[in-house]
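Long-time lurker. I teach an intro course on protein structure, and each term I like to show students one example going from raw sequence to a predicted 3D structure in token notation. This year I'd like something fresh instead of my usual example. Would anyone be willing to generate the tokens for the chain below so I can use it in lecture? Attribution to the forum is fine with me.
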Amino acid sequence: MPVDTKRVKGPDESQCPLVYVVQSVEDEEEHRTNRDERTDGRRANHVDVRPIFARAGLLSQAKGSAYIESGGTKVLCAVYGPRDAERRDRDAEGTGLLSGRLVCEVRVAPFASRVRKRAAWVPTGADRELSLFLWESLRSAVRLDRYPRAQIDVHVLVLQDDGSALAVAVSCASLALADAGIELFDIVVGCALRQDGDRYLLDPTYDEEYRLGFAVSQGERHGCMTLALLPVLNQVSGLLSNGEWDHEASVQAVKACIEGCQRLYPVLRQCLTSAVKKRRPPSVGGWS
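-- Reply from a regular --
Happy to contribute to a lecture. Here you go:
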């Protein structure tokens, strides 16, 4: 029988070398510190949102518009109306709608994600789910009773998705509604959170939101949450979560998202104030 001379003869039984490695207390503390650090410099279990850039009134053909960048996530929104509602949307008695109608649409560009490739401008079930959450988050803030027999259209386009795209879309749509002069009870601010075991990541990036913890997602503390808040009224207008949560983790996540929305609110308010000042006509005769 021929013998394989190139084969290395090893022992019949072997053990993994990591079994004989003794981890010291310093190594455990270093591992815990590295686990708390995130790729973009932020820390886990801290209310730390990404830098945000917001601008209102960019599109001249729309009644109101807004553009928001949060890290690498870029969202554009346009608002049209109020306009007359279609006849088929009126009630059976023919008296017309007693309150206005809000229509929301969220579309994700085919080039928005560097990983997930989409067909060119074909709406999917995920887009309809995003549109439904956007509508539920905004309808509590818009005073539709002020616009009877009218319809307000909100169109959101996700240009680049680097995580927390739905939360950014909620804030962008609310800013565009305010820029259009639509009466609101309050500006709606969105914030997202990723739960990864015993730690949470506020305003997660794309890798943290879609890739992190998939191999160990069998526990009760792994999932994503998106929350919409009316900051001045301190009321939650929308909440969307997936994964498995226990009571303690879910309560902690809601509190962290609310605090994150409160931190983002001054930026949106300042953006809206700047847009109004730019539209204000110049003073005549030295009067301001």
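Some talking points for your students: The helical segments are 25-36, 125-139, 165-179, 206-210, 247-279. Residues 8 and 106 are 60 Å apart (CA to CA).
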